[in-house]
Write a structure and sequence with these properties.
Distance between the termini: 7 Å
Helix content: 25-40%
Strand order of the largest sheet: 3-2-4-5-6
Number of strands: 17
Number of helices: 19
Shape: globular
Largest sheet: 5 strands, parallel
Length: 565
């Protein structure tokens, strides 16, 4: 473990003096240098007119609404895809669409995106316009199949595009090379939200709302917040505005019954919800549907108009999530055992790891890859069997290694080795023939070698420095909690320091509960280290977060230990 303290990226003095000094320090380390950058007002969002193809996209939808055409939203089987699907269906119906339906691919049967098999499954719905959300940017064959049915296609996506775009009737994706939209980090739900913003403006100009109510799009930001945080896209200023505004509405109770139900089964209080509650509470339960069953269950939860239907769906999602945790734990143990059994001599672990077991579940390999990446600090691909002789892999990376580009370079250097691939800098997916696994493993490790440095493999942990005695307070923890939203690219504040261990015990079978004293003295502090199954010595050097622990309606300061040196 290598600790690296974040230096100021902006002038602390330029931030409002009314903010706590520690929060100003944290903001400055994340490049927030003025009140404008700090503002989460909706007026700070970039203009939708900067999105390439936005006029053509709105024209397609307007014509479909005007002619009462059958519109089919094709989503993805993760939380971003589910929220994007629900948002599109909600709003298309609110705009007056009377024949709006959706289809979420089955992970095992259809694969990812607008595949020809998805188009075939959609045939009985007889769509006249297909709108993809959170997918479609590489769906050349699927677009061709849809056109063969006489169906027009609007692709909305945020994944990195291939060199040649599919022949869709319109493509909205901020990552198109010809798109001037300034923020490339929108999630899939953020992209379709922007399309709906543009569509409402177009319909308003045409007097569409003279005879029907005009939807308030800000009322749908709860879905945008959920999908954006769940997809772990960087919380750029645009995404912080979208998430911050969505969280504000959720905390005020202005949210869909499905989101309220997910918070309830996750044990989160709606009026105190923050981004980390979404990331570690709501999102895993929603994602469980796409991993083990069908994400249509998650979409139905988000579309539910009343609490009864939402609560029923959320309970099923809770059960699926419990099953997911059990299977993930088993797969992680198998992955760790296979790595421990490797006979590597003096070479050590490869810079890039490839893992595969015969009975691994396709929907969970991404989580396993993420956990192994966290432990060994290097890119990981975990594979599951997908049909006869095929493998599907899910990759997770470390900062500084763009995993999608790594896969692209492997595919270029070894033609025919990788069947399909796509994704982001930190996460990607791919498929290949099972007999090619060993060749891919070697090629992947060699390519990753070109990207990594020794420091990356040691596990760099960025912190916001040390805290003094006065900083260890409930007020400080509250200020940091409310100073978000925190997430990818705008990390939750973490600190490092030395402590004496006054007391420790294992709770919940695998968590370490501690009472600590700062080395320089002060009051005793309650702390917890999750997934720390072994006790520590009399003194530790730790990386930690300040947390507000609520127990029996009382708030208390708690340190959450994230690493122990």
């Amino acid at each position: 473990m290598v600790l690296r303290r974040r230096p100021p990226q902006a002038a602390i003095d330029a931030l409002p003096a009314s903010l706590p000094t520690l929060l100003r320090r944290v903001y400055a380390a994340r490049g927030v240098g003025d009140a404008d950058t700090l503002s989460l007002d909706l007026a700070r969002l970039p203009d939708f007119r900067q999105l390439a193809d936005i006029d053509a996209a709105c024209g397609l939808i307007e014509q479909a609404l005007t002619d009462d055409q059958r519109i089919l939203v094709v989503g993805d089987f993760d939380a971003d895809g589910a929220t994007a699907t629900a948002l599109a269906v909600h709003l298309l119906r609110a705009f007056g669409g009377r024949q709006v339906d959706y289809l979420v691919p089955d992970r095992a049967r259809h694969g990812y995106g607008l595949s020809p098999s998805v188009v075939e499954a959609a045939r009985e719905l007889r769509p006249q316009l297909i709108i993809t959300v959170d997918n479609g940017i590489a769906s050349h064959d699927g677009v061709t199949a849809a056109h063969a049915l006489g169906c027009r296609v609007l692709v909305t996506d945020h994944h990195l595009p291939p060199p040649e775009l599919p022949a869709a009737d319109a493509i909205v994706n901020p990552n198109r090379v010809d798109c001037p939209f300034p923020d490339k980090a929108l999630a899939g739900v953020g992209v379709i939200f922007y399309v709906m913003l543009a569509l409402r403006a177009r319909l308003r100009e045409r007097g569409w709302f003279r005879d029907q109510p005009e939807p308030v799009l800000a009322d749908y930001l709860d879905l945008v917040a959920l999908g954006t945080v769940a997809d772990v896209v960087p919380l750029t200023h645009t995404n912080r505005v979208l998430v911050g505004q969505g969280l504000k509405r959720i905390r005020r109770g202005r949210t869909r019954p499905g989101i309220a139900a997910l918070a309830q089964v996750a044990g989160r209080e709606l009026n105190r919800l923050v981004a980390t509650d979404i990331g570690f509470g709501l999102a895993p339960r929603l994602n469980a549907a796409g991993r083990l069953d069908n994400m249509a269950l998650g979409v139905e939860c988000l579309l539910a108009a009343h609490a009864h239907g939402a609560d029923s769906a959320a309970l099923v999602l809770e059960q699926l999530n419990a099953e997911r945790r059990e299977r993930q734990s088993q797969m992680q143990d198998e992955a760790l055992a296979s790595l421990a059994a490797l006979d590597l001599g003096d070479a050590g672990l490869p810079s890039g790891l490839c893992l595969h077991e015969e009975d691994w579940h396709e929907g969970i390999v991404g989580l396993v890859a993420g956990r192994i990446r966290e432990r060994y600090h290097r890119p990981v691909v975990a594979f599951a069997r997908a049909g006869a002789g095929g493998l599907k892999g899910s990759a997770r990376s470390v900062p500084g290694v763009h995993i999608r580009d790594v896969l692209a370079n492997v595919a270029t250097a070894h033609p025919g080795l990788v069947d399909k691939f796509g994704g982001h800098g930190m996460a990607a997916g791919l498929s290949l023939a099972e007999h090619e696994l060993d060749r891919f493993r070697d090629a992947f490790a060699l390519e990753v070698d070109r990207w990594v440095t020794p420091a990356m493999l040691d596990g760099i942990i960025d912190t916001d420095g040390a805290l003094t005695g006065d900083d260890f307070s409930l007020d400080t923890a509250r200020a940091l909690r409310e100073g978000g939203p925190w997430g990818a690219g705008f990390p939750e504040p973490a600190f490092d320091g030395e402590f004496r261990v006054l007391d420790q015990r294992i709770v919940g079978e695998r968590h370490l509960k501690l009472t600590l004293m700062p080395a320089e003295g002060g009051a005793a502090l309650s702390a917890i280290a999750f997934n720390q199954e072994h006790k520590v010595g009399e003194g530790i050097y730790a990386v930690y977060r300040l947390d507000v622990n609520r127990y029996q309606a009382m708030d208390n300061l708690q340190l959450v230990i994230t690493a122990i040196a």
